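Review form for a predicted model. The reviewer records the input and the model, then writes brief findings.
Reviewer: anonymous (R2)
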Amino acid sequence: MEPSVASLTTAYNAERALPRQIESLLGQTRSLQEIIVVDNASTDGTAAMLAARYPQVTVLRMPENLGAAGAWAAGLSYAALEKRHGWVWTFDDDSVPQSDALEVLLGGVRDLEAEHPDIGIAAGLAVNAATGDLYKPVLWRDDFVQPPAAVLGQANWFADLVIASGCLVRRDVVERVGLPRADFFMDIFDFEYCLRARSAGYKVAVINAARVVHEIGNARKIRLPGYRRLWTRQAPWREYYISRNLFYLAWWLYPNLRTKRAIVRYLTVHAVQIALFGTRKLDCLTKMARGVRDGHRGALGIRFRPEGTRLRGRGEEVAAEILAQEKA
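Model under review:
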């Protein structure tokens, strides 16, 4: 029997971007049982657009901006726990899956399940439409590690960390490990959720042929003598959540020496990059410092709510940095 699958999109001020995704979801070669959009208190007409153009879409209107993490948690609660869909396919509002992406994802999971019945999350590959770059999932070895080339060359393989946009989450995972951490607000919460699922014994499958067009961050190429890389620029408020949630992960969730060293090293390098290549340098570095302090203290929750700014990201900043390291 085919499993029930719902899509779940977290959206904020996405009136212009969202129709491309909805049209793609409606045109999937494997039909969805429900299309769900969590409207994160948008102010640009997103809700009115959905009501007028896509009355078949379920819209969960949040009373305030809960961030990508809070919206993802609310959506999974509805889709997996209340409506009890077998799988929930999750997206940012600007991601556009290929027309056969869901069919390919489910087919890849079926191919793997005979030997690996404990698959709890499955993801394809995110593709930057402008450059063709693939954002590859990574391994967690108390640090972010690129899979070896022999693994990346396989059609289906297993990772530890995937970004939320484009991934399938099995209902069993939500029932067993709970909802994503809404108190992260933005960034890293999808990585934390993957680690929690892995700790509960679930596998994270990667199906290479399933593609989703998606841009991670605001990247530009940096070229200096002997140094080339992609630099992903973020607003100061995003720098706060990235540093805070990474520090919290290292000091409270996985508090071993190697993890602490890895996160301190990552944030130190990132701070140097902001000083060299960033804009609003002082504001970004100040927000990073505050994030480190709050993460060390375990002080989570909403500290900055950037009204008027589209909320994108999750573990994307780190994913972009890992891609940049690979290309350097």
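Findings: The first helix runs from residue 18 to 26.
Further findings: DSSP finds eleven helices and 14 strands in the chain.
Recommendation: see findings above.
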